[in-house]
Amino acid sequence: MGRIRAAEGDRASERFGERIGRFRADDTLPLYLQLQGLIRDAIQAGIAPRGSGIPAERDLAVEYNISRITVRKAIEGLVEEGLLVRRRGAGTFVAGRVDKVFSKLSSFTEDMAARGRVASSRWVSRTTGPVTPEEAMALGLSPGTPVLRFTRIRLADDEPMALEFSTVVGDGLGSTDDVGESLYEALDRAGNRPVRALQRLRAVPIRAQHARMLEIDTGDPVLLIERRGSMRDGRVVEFTRSYYRGDSYDFVAEL
User: Fold this and answer.
1) Across the strands, what pairs with 125?
2) pLDDT higher than threshold 90 for residue 136
3) Is this structure's pTM higher than 0.85?
4) Does domain 98-252 fall into CATH 3.30.2350.10?
5) The organism sits in which domain of life (predicted)?
6) 62-71 pLDDT, tens per residue?
């Protein structure tokens, strides 16, 4: 059985090597940079499509007649660039990065639909209760004011992309059950969709509990976005904190 798996791995590596090309005899770059260049060019050309797997280090080492240390160095560089992503127990894959444009106020569901990806949610909790001091500051509410809270994992094509904590003013929606896939769609139906927002972005290390939800390692860098969404009359209706996987998202601002 072990020989069968090894043979299958060798054949997969050979097919990958045939697609991305071989080292050039006249190339004087270090071998790890040459391998990086081949894989990077294949990703950019669509030869190695988003979400596709990369052969194991040992298979690439045999295919290109180089050491596993050289392969590992090449792969680690591409992971740092955000072109590849490692998934525990599964292997290494071409990252499916998403550009989030800051100049447009849109929901996660709308962002994914615009990119041809299917958005979904894995609900963690839907609750109601009195506003916390932090929420009161963000929403401009008095102590004790009721709010609705939504915690969920946001997925694109069934891959975890973000962990989202949203708080909505109590009269912004009828109940927590009003929210399906899109919070903004629910707010729109209620006539309370935000038309402008103040957003703050910073990089933070992910905590263990949150890392498990996003299927990444504890301490991995994530992008924390804090957003306060306001209606036309200036009232803040939504306060959301989202942790986006650093290996999956690019944030773009047009200046």
Assistant:
1) 151
2) yes
3) no
4) no
5) Bacteria
6) 889 999 999 9
